[in-house]
Predict the structure.
Amino acid sequence: MMETGPKKTIRHDVVMINRKKLDITGVLKVESFDHEEFLLQTEGGFLTIKGKNLHMKNLSLEDGQVSIEGMVFGMEYIDESYQGERAKGLFGRIFR
């Protein structure tokens, strides 16, 4: 009989340096990205990062780590259960 242990929880951290470099852990999936916006699925929920000249410096989904460089204007977590227009609009754009 095979026993299953407790689900391993991955730590989720966001470290920003001078609004120009982000190191993020606990990343499960990179949903989409371009030079103005990243959408990441993390242990803490969906995270959007908006900015200018954004690019992925490092990516290791095996370790759950992403490094992003560029000018960061804002970050926001999106709750999947939130039914507001903003959430519908964002997910509508992603899953067309």
